[in-house]
Design a protein that fits this description.
single chain; 367 residues; eight-stranded parallel beta sheet; 15 helices; RNA-binding
Amino acid sequence: MSHPFSFECQTCCPHTKARAGVFHTPHGIVETPRFMPVGTLANVKTVTPAQLAETGAQMVLANTYHLHLQPGEGIVQKAGGLHKFMNWQGPILTDSGGFQVFSLSELREINDEGVTFRSPRDGHFIHLTPEKSIEIQNALGADVIMAFDECAPYPASRDVVETALHRTTRWLERCIKAHQRPNQALFGIVQGGVYLDLRQLSARSLIEFDLPGYAIGGVSVGEPPELIQKIVETITPLLPLNKPRYLMGVGTYREMVQAIGAGMDLFDCVIPTRLARHANALVGGERWNLRNQKFREDFTPLDATCPCYTCQSFTRAYLSHLLRSRELLGYTLVSIHNITELVRFTQRIRAAIQTGTFVEQFGHWLN
RNA sequence: GCGAGCGUAGCCAAGUGGUUAAGGCAGUGGUUUGUGGUACCACCAUCCCGCGGGUUCGAGUCCCGUCGUUCGCC
């Protein structure tokens, strides 16, 4: 109330570190644990904001890197900011572009100053620094902005990871200095690869800055899922109780349950929308390829227990037909369902935590 | 009726004498984790190239016949 970014933990699980909380932002609350859909412009590519709101999504992700290239933060600013430009009235989080440097570009040069790499779009050189990333994110105007970090690949040697994490910490200082807008919360990002002592070092350095929220980054870059869990279990206890904790890029049902059990609050992942565009639906904890033969004459709803528009209106056979025909509507309908599915999954976990039945209901995912 | 061409997997189609017959679509599975905008990977003609003969050490590939088909001429 006093601070636009307060976080309150409402219920703690008696058996695990899981917690149900509320994160306040200038554009509304985020009830955690929560899955946040992610997309280039947070429109998730094939879903309208109205459809997105219906999925139960509260906060959505937009992308600094892509918006910088197209249309450019200047235009977003002239439009009145990201919320107006894309017509999403709820909370928005922008990623810093650090991960895109790692994930999209082969030709890159990283030094203490920043990163230089070729745009995969047209080949021209792009220079990103902590200051530049924050300047762009200030212009975009999301509720939460992310520190510009260096995400080391997996596998990577200890030396490489250690260098990246120290650089990330030094960059965080510069991000904080560059940050001009108090109505945007700057989150720090824990790095350190799969080296737990480096992770701890990173987390301890970050919390010195007393930021409004913390993220664990550099996971789900190819390492085995057990290692993600190990990292989360080691780091979460070091993060302040009264700040939201965001596990970047995760993910799957199991990874979310395990991370929530360890005390994480927020998740984002391309899985629901990318899977949808590849004809896969998330149903009851499983992944189904709707183009498979067995769905051609299946005239039942995708998930009879799902309240989403897709499940309420169409059959598996019809979705299979749309996807086999590469009809654009197929991607939209399955995206709506998949996002709804993961958002509802985290909502059910939240409810279970509140009623003290988290372990009872979701314990089978915990190991 | 005459002349010319063509007949290769469900569809389109390369190959014109020499081991296991390109490729595409369709089909059947799989992959996808802080999104390079519908991608990628695997499998998919084991007596088989319309059918029947022939030439040749060897024929989808050459020759003859036949059936089908396309175009042109009458």
